[in-house]
Write a structure and sequence with these properties.
By secondary structure, the protein is an alpha/beta fold. It is built from 17 helices and 18 strands. Bound molecules: 3-methyl-2-oxobutanoic acid and zinc ion. The site of zinc ion (ZN) has 6 residues, from loops.
Length: 514
C-alpha cells in the first residue's frame, strides 16, 4: 500500500511573507476555508506574536476552521509560545510550531549564542509547547547549512523533549536535491529516536529547486512536506503545493506516495490566493498557469485531439479545470447559472447570488460566450467581504488622441450621491484623480495590473491594484468588459478596504485607551 505523507500548507504564514502579499483577517479566513476544502493536513495560520493582526487571524481560524490541524509559529521563547497557544487553543486540532536557527552562521551573527545554548533553548521551547498541546513541531532554521553532527544532536534532543514533527528547512534555498537527501539519510540513520517523530522538509526557491528538493526528500523518507499555494513566500518563494501534489500523483509509479489533497480544488485555490494577494500567476507556471494545459503548436493540437496522452501527462479536470470551458450564454437561466457556480465550488448567499446573476446577464448581453474563468472573475467582483462605504454609480470618461483625458464620476456613500470630475494624463489616471477628489483619504498607489481573463478583444479585463497607508497594503480587484471601468472598480474596492480597516483600527485604539 502507498505511504501517505502530511501536506503542511504555510500560505498564510510563510506565503504571506511574500513582499506585498499581506492579507487581512477576512481574507485569511477565506483562504483558510478554501485550504480546508483542498483538504491539506495542516495549515500554518500565522505567527501570533508578530502582530495583533496575525494573532487575531490565527485565533479566528482556530475558532472557525474544522478539518485540518491549525498551526501557529513561535520562536523558541516562552513569550512566543504562550502567545501562540492563546491564539490556537480554540482549534479542534492545534499544533504549536517552534523554531530556532542551528547553523553556525546564524548562531554567530544573528543569535550570538553558542551551540549548547541553542540546544537548551530548543529543548525548553518544545517542553513548554508540549505543556499546552501534544502536537508540537520543531524547526531547525537553516538546517541545510548546519553542521550535520550538531543537527543530529538537536533533532534527537527535541524528539526526546516531545516534538512530534521535526522540520528540516532549507531556509535560504541553498541545498541541491541530492545533497539534501544525504542530510535526510544521515538523520534517518544516526538519530536513535528518529522513528518517534515525523521528519518534515521545508524548501525555499532561491535556486528554483524547492519542489525538486522536496520530492527528493520524500524519496528518502520525509513524512511531511511544507509548501504554499502558487509557491508564494519569502524572496523567491516556497515549494509550490500544487506542483508537489501533482508530481506525487502523476508519478505514483516512482514515489508510491499518496496525499489527502483533493486535487480538484487546486485551480480554485490557486486563483483565490492570487486574487487575494494580488500576486499574479505566471502564464507558463506548472499546473496552474494559464498555459499549463494549452496546446499552441498544430502538431500538438492534432496529437491531443487524436489521443490526449500524446502530449498531456495530466488531465486538466484533475485540478478542477473543466473539460468544457464554454458554459453559459445570454439565454442561460438562473438555474443553470446557479448550478454552474455550485459545480465550480462557489457557495453564495441569496443576495450575493442575485448580484452575481444580474452582473452575468449584463455581461452575457455583450459577450457571446461566458467561460468558467469569466464566471470566477464576475463572482470575485460582486462578492465583497467588507462593507462598501463607496459604491460606484456612474462614470463617463472622455479621451481623444490630442485632448486631455477627463472623467466624471458619481459615487454613493452613506445614502448620499457625491459627484466630481477631474483630468489626468490618461483615462485611468483621470478616473483615479476623480475618485481621490471624492473620497479624500490619503494613500499611495503601489501597484496597478491589468490582464484579460480569456482571449479576444471582448474578453473580461481584470484589474488588480494595491494601495497603502502607513499601516498596511490593501488590494482591490475589478472585472469588466471595459478595462477603465474595471480600473475604477478595483480602486473603489481598495479604498473601501482601507476605510474599513482604518475605522476598525480607530475603534480598537479607542477601546485600548479607555
Ligand atoms: O524557512 C524557514 O526556515 C522557516 C522556518 C520558520 C520553518 O520558515
Ligand atoms: Zn520558510
Amino acid at each position: 500500500m502507498n505511504k501517505r505523507i502530511v501536506i503542511f500548507d504555510t500560505t498564510l504564514r510563510d506565503g504571506e511573507q511574500s513582499p506585498g502579499a499581506s492579507m487581512n483577517i477576512e481574507e485569511k479566513l477565506e483562504v483558510a476555508k478554501q485550504l480546508a476544502r483542498l483538504n491539506v493536513d495542516v495549515m500554518e495560520a500565522g505567527f501570533p506574536i508578530s502582530s495583533p493582526g496575525d494573532f487575531e487571524a490565527v485565533k479566528a481560524i482556530s475558532q472557525n476552521i474544522k478539518g485540518p490541524s491549525i498551526c501557529g509559529l513561535a520562536r523558541a521563547t516562552s513569550g512566543d509560545i504562550d502567545c501562540a497557544w492563546d491564539a490556537l487553543k480554540y482549534a479542534e486540532k492545534p499544533r504549536i510550531h517552534t523554531f530556532i536557527a542551528t547553523s553556525d552562521i546564524h548562531l554567530k551573527y544573528k543569535l550570538k549564542k553558542t551551540r549548547e545554548q541553542v540546544l537548551e533553548y530548543a529543548v525548553a521551547a518544545v517542553k513548554r509547547a508540549k505543556s499546552y498541546c501534544n502536537d508540537v513541531e520543531f524547526s531547525a532554521e537553516d538546517a541545510s547549512r548546519t553542521d550535520i553532527d550538531y543537527l543530529c544532536r538537536v533533532v534527537e534532543a527535541v524528539i526526546d523533549a516531545g516534538a512530534t514533527t521535526v522540520n528540516i528547512p532549507d531556509t535560504v534555498g541553498y541545498a541541491i536535491p541530492h545533497e539534501f537527501a544525504q542530510i535526510m539519510h544521515n538523520l534517518k540513520t544516526r538519530v536513535s529516536n528518529i522513528d518517534k517523530a515525523i521528519l518534515s522538509v521545508h524548501f525555499h526557491n532561491d535556486l528554483g529547486l524547492a519542489v525538486a528538493g522536496s520530492l527528493s526528500a520524500v524519496l528518502v523518507g520525509a513524512g511531511q512536506v511544507e509548501c504554499t499555494i502558487n509557491g508564494i513566500g519569502e524572496r523567491a518563494g516556497n515549494a509550490a503545493l500544487e506542483e508537489i501534489v501533482m508530481a506525487l500523483d502523476t508519478r505514483k509509479d516512482i514515489y508510491g506516495i499518496t496525499t489527502g489533497v483533493n486535487t480538484k480544488e487546486i485551480y480554485r485555490t490557486s486563483r483565490m490566493v492570487s486574487d487575494i494577494t494580488g500576486l499574479a500567476v505566471q502564464a507558463n507556471k506548472a499546473i496552474v498557469g494559464r498555459n499549463a494545459f494549452a496546446h499552441e503548436a498544430g502538431i500538438h493540437q492534432h496529437g491531443v485531439l487524436e489521443e490526449r496522452s500524446t502530449y498531456e501527462i495530466m488531465d486538466a479536470t484533475s485540478i478542477g479545470l473543466t473539460e468544457n470551458k464554454l458554459v453559459l450564454g445570454k439565454h442561460s437561466g438562473r438555474h443553470a447559472f446557479e448550478r454552474r457556480l455550485s459545480e465550480l465550488g462557489y457557495e453564495l448567499s441569496g443576495e450575493e447570488l442575485e448580484k452575481a446573476f444580474a452582473r452575468f446577464k449584463e455581461v452575457a448581453d455583450k459577450k457571446k460566450e461566458i467561460f468558467d474563468e469569466d464566471l470566477a472573475a464576475l463572482v470575485a467582483d460582486e462578492v465583497h467581504s467588507i462593507p462598501e462605504t463607496y459604491q460606484l454609480e456612474y462614470m463617463t470618461v472622455i479621451t481623444s488622441l490630442e485632448g486631455i483625458p477627463s472623467a466624471t464620476i458619481k459615487v454613493k456613500s452613506g445614502g448620499r450621491d457625491i459627484a466630481e470630475c477631474a483630468m489626468g494624463v490618461g483615462s485611468v489616471d483621470a478616473v483615479y484623480q476623480t475618485i481621490d477628489k471624492i473620497v479624500n483619504v490619503p494613500h499611495t498607489l503601489i501597484d496597478y495590473n491589468v490582464k484579460s481573463v480569456t482571449g479576444g478583444t471582448d474578453a473580461i479585463g481584470e484589474v488588480t491594484i494595491k494601495i497603502g497607508d502607513d499601516d498596511s497594503v490593501y488590494i482591490g480587484r475589478g472585472a469588466s468588459l471595459d478595462i477603465v471601468e474595471a480600473s475604477a472598480k478595483a480602486y473603489v474596492q481598495a479604498i473601501n478596504k482601507l476605510v474599513y480597516h482604518q475605522s476598525k483600527r480607530k475603534k480598537t485604539n479607542g477601546s485600548d485607551n479607555n
